[in-house]
Structures are given as structure tokens and as C-alpha cells.
Amino acid sequence: MDRSEKMAIWFAVLLMVSFAGALVYAFFGLNIRFPGCVTDRTPFTKGKVIQRGVGEYEVQYVAKMWAFEPAELEIPVGSKVDIYLSSIDVNHGFQIKFTNVNLMAVPGAVNYAQITFDKPGDYPLVCHEYCGAGHQNMMGMIRVKPRESSLSGAVPESDIGIEQPKAEGQPAVSEASMALLNAKGCTACHSLDGTRMVGPSLKGVFGREEELEDGSKVTVDEAYILESIKNPMAKIVKGYPKVMVPMPMTEQEIKQLVEIVKGIR
Ligand code: HEC
Ligand SMILES: [Cu+2]
């Protein structure tokens, strides 16, 4: 055999050994587990957080147009999280920034990954699979709190990401209201601070005079807000796309939303 041929063979062997070594290192050294498809779980339609023990969580994430449920998760640093993921409508992506968790949310199936959060910080969740008009706003957040704060609460509030001072002009909606708006996907298309997104901002919408697609004008009152939520196609605001669809909601939730929208000044 020619010398150069021998060298090429040895070089190839060396490469293969180093690739295999990298896999073994990733598994044992970096503790990286490969995402899997869990077939023994029944697909779920509601997001859920279950604390299994100290620093051990199971989170059932639901992806939907255009939000994740739970939209926000707060856990102490060091937590080991089992993530189960499903979708209730179309395929979505699910990536946790700054980590190697990257899954597909597939309707009718449940995917799984496990991750341990070793560093405190905010880890955004993003959907990286185009899923419709609100796709670019489909985000969530995992807040990993430093240990001190979970033990003593001694860390200034602004450090743990709760109740951060609101930027000026931000409306004062309570956390519960915000959670409902997030859970129902409203915030994927509506801002609360006057910014135009897919839909008109909900800031100061109550009492506003709105021009509709057909040129007529309406003053936004309770009945109009109720109709906008229950039957969004009935009246279309001029200059906006017909993309808002009714979300599955209880009468109670609809009532709450009307009150919340009324209060966004
Ligand atoms: C897919 C994006 C999308 C989602 C999600 C969405 N909306 Fe809308 N919404 C729109 C668009 C676009 C309009 C304007 C066109 C129209 O009237 O349908 C609108 C209009 C409205 C209006 C009338 C606003 C005005 O200026 O007259 C209200 C109120 C409203 N939405 C509330 C909500 C609430 C509450 C939710 C959550 C349950 C929600 N929307 C979810 C896109 C969306
Ligand atoms: Cu999506």
C-alpha cells in the first residue's frame, strides 16, 4: 500500500475515534441527553407544572397559536426539569435559548427533553417553526432564580424578575390579568402599550372611536369588546387583517377579559 494511502486511512480512523469521543464526552461530561419521542404519554391540552421534589419539576408545555402554556415558569437555580411538549393546533417549534433543548411540538404526540438549569437568568422560549400570522410573537419565558432569593427573599425584587419597574406608558394590569391575556394568546397580537402589532393596541381602546373596514364608525363600548372577543369577524377594524379567531373560553373568562380590556388605559 502506498504511504499516502496508509496515512489517509489512519487519518480517517483518528477522525472517527475523535467523533465517537465527542459523543461520549457530550453524554457523560456535559450531561447532554438526546431528545426523544415519548409514545406512552397521552397528548394533553392544558399546560401544567408539577413539583416532584426539591428542585425537581415536570412541566407539561402546550404550544398553540401563538403562545406557550405555561407562558412563564419560575424555578430556583439547579432545578432539574422534565419537559413534556404537545401542541393543540399545528406544528410548532420549541427552543429554550442558551440551552440545547430544541423540540418540535406536534399535535397528537408528546415530545420529551430533560434539562438542569445550572445558571440563574432568563431563558426565553421561542417557536422556531413558522406557524401562522402571530408566529414571530410566540414566546415564553423560564426564569431561573438565584438560590438566595428562593430561600430568603433577600434579593431586591428587580433582580429576580418579578414586578420589574414598568417602562413608562405601560398600563397597570395586574399579574393575574396579564396571565389570562397571555394564556388566551391575546398578547401575541395585541400590545398593551400603544404599539401596533398584528392587531390594534388595546391601550385606551375603551371609548375609542374606531373606523371599520366598511367605512362605518363605532365607539368602543362593552358590547363591542364582547363581540370582538366572541365573534371577531363580525366587525373588522380598518387597516387590520382578518386573523383574529375566537379562543376556546368559558363565559367567565370572556367576562374577565372584557373587564381587563376595558381597564387597559
Ligand atoms: C391572531 C392575532 C390575534 C389574536 C390572538 C387576538 N386578536 Fe384581537 N384582534 C386582532 C386583529 C387583527 C384585530 C383587528 C381586526 C378585527 O377587528 O378583527 C383585533 C381586534 C380586537 C379588538 C377590537 C380592537 C379595536 O381597536 O377595535 C379587541 C377588543 C380584541 N381584538 C381583543 C382580543 C382579545 C381579548 C384577545 C385574546 C382572547 C385577542 N384579541 C386575540 C388580532 C388578534
Ligand atoms: Cu408556533
Describe this structure in words.
- The chain has 265 residues and is an alpha+beta fold.
- The protein has two domains: 36-155, Cupredoxins -  blue copper proteins (Immunoglobulin-like), CATH 2.60.40; 175-262, Cytochrome Bc1 Complex, Chain D, domain 2.
- The chain has five helices and 13 strands.
- It has helices at 3-29, 147-151, 175-183, 222-230, 251-262; strands spanning 36-38, 48-53, 56-64, 67-69, 72-76, 80-87, 92-96, 102-105, 110-116, 121-126, 139-145, 209-211, 217-219.
- Strands 1, 2, 3, 4, 6 and 9 form a six-stranded mixed β-sheet that branches.
- Helix 4 crosses helix 5.
- The longest helix is centred in the N-terminal third of the chain and has 27 residues, at 3-29.
- It is elongated.
- Bound molecules: heme C and copper (II) ion.
Secondary-structure element series: HEEEEEEEEEEEHHEEHH
Shape: elongated
What class do helices, strands and sheet pairing give?
alpha+beta
Largest sheet: 6 strands, mixed
Q: Helix coverage percent of residues? A: 10-25%
Low-confidence stretches: 149-170
How many discrete structural domains? 2
Looking at this protein, list some descriptive labels.
binds heme C; alpha+beta; 5 helices; binds copper (II) ion; 2 domains; 265 residues; elongated; 6-stranded mixed sheet; Immunoglobulin-like; 5-stranded mixed sheet; Cytochrome Bc1 Complex, Chain D, domain 2
